[in-house]
Amino acid sequence: MPGGAGAGVGRRRGPTRLVVLGLLIAAGCVSYIDRTALAVSTVEIGREFGLSYTDLGLLLSSFATVYMLCQIPAGLVADRVRARRLLLFSLLVWSAAQILSAFSTGMGGLLAARGLLAIGEAPIFLAGTRVIALWFDRGRRAMPIGLFNASSALGQVLAPALLGGIAVQFGWRAMFGVVGCTSLVLAVIWAWVYRDPRTVAAGRGETRPRPRSPKEIRFLLSHRSSWALAGGFVGVVYLQWLYAAWLPTYLQTARHAAAARADYLSSLPQLAGFLGGLGGGVVSEVLGRIGWPAARACRVPLVAALFVAAAATILAPLCPAMVLSLVAMSVALFAAGIAMTCGWTLGTVLIDDGSIATLEAIQNMGGSLGGAIAPVLTGAITQRTGSFTMAMVVAGLVAALSGIIYWVGTGRRIEA
């Protein structure tokens, strides 16, 4: 265990690596349940506030837009500020945002709450990846990062059934209140349990991260691999947000499923995405153990997965039966899950540990651009054409282009 982590010193014993990973998985899962909450009740909220597909697309995109703008600042903060304090702040802010959503009286209130949610959640995967880098050696990070990233898909698996049930029984406002309180409980647990591994061994307060040079961003942005990571991640997150934002609505309107059934069926492709996230970690680690360089072990399955996801997404709306469409979307999200894990792990092996969060922020900023565009563009195309078909074809093309960007641009490690 790095730095003697887990050896009890002083007044209290520190967490083990499994406990730390479990906390991160819980946080990642809850964060995506919170993000997905709006999509679960899109039809009901749209009906109550009189919103069009375009309005709903803007509302669904608002989170990703603010999230994107927060990525570089969040990455710099994550490389400077202690993880325990930063993630506690993050959890408290997004808890407040969800509770505020419950009291919204119109689109403006929901937009403000979604923006606050994005500010709160911006550091979670950046700081969490840095925590994994502290607790796990470079050659053994693919699996924990895979589990951490898969937690996002797990959140999307659980959200439709759990939140849909609450919304049907008690209304969408109660649903937002429940997820806000759940995040608040998790914040208390995180603050109580988590300690930095080096400080557990030393028996003192958390080690302050090494200060970063103000020239760091300029250096990273001068390297082609940084831009390729950002550009490639656009397609990965575009696909995730396409399905997270519009899948329940697609099943209700295009496949004529009842609301409760649509929520249940939406969980099936998201479950495939969760399994894909786990599979990405397994594939990368196995390839590394048979002698592949760490970067190649991430890059090859990443690109292959993006092309599979692209083809399956284009095929999904063309299937004559709903069950075939669900199979195609499940394949797409399984492949997207592999791409998410491999893409995120790739960023950790192309740079020194001290700059991981900042580089991942650059990559995630690109991903957030995809996340911001996907809901609103999908809504606009669907509003104009009266069908989701063209919107899903566009999503497939974006994913394929991202695969090309990753293959061409990430062949070299980022070094001074």
Automatic annotation (TrEMBL):
It comes from Gluconacetobacter diazotrophicus (strain ATCC 49037 / DSM 5601 / CCUG 37298 / CIP 103539 / LMG 7603 / PAl5). Residues 20-414 form the Major facilitator superfamily (MFS) profile domain. This is Putative major facilitator superfamily transporter. The lineage of its organism: Bacteria, Pseudomonadati, Pseudomonadota, Alphaproteobacteria, Acetobacterales. Keywords: Membrane, Transmembrane, Transmembrane helix. GO terms for cellular component: membrane. Gene3D superfamilies: MFS general substrate transporter like domains. It comes from the Bacteria. Pfam families: MFS_1. It is a multi-pass membrane protein. One of its GO terms (molecular function) is transmembrane transporter activity. The chain crosses the membrane at residues 18-38, 58-78, 85-103, 115-136, 148-168, 174-194, 227-247, 267-288, 300-318, 324-350, 362-382, 388-408. CDD domains: MFS_ExuT_GudP_like. It is found in: Membrane. InterPro entries: MFS, MFS_dom, MFS_Na/Anion_cotransporter, MFS_trans_sf.
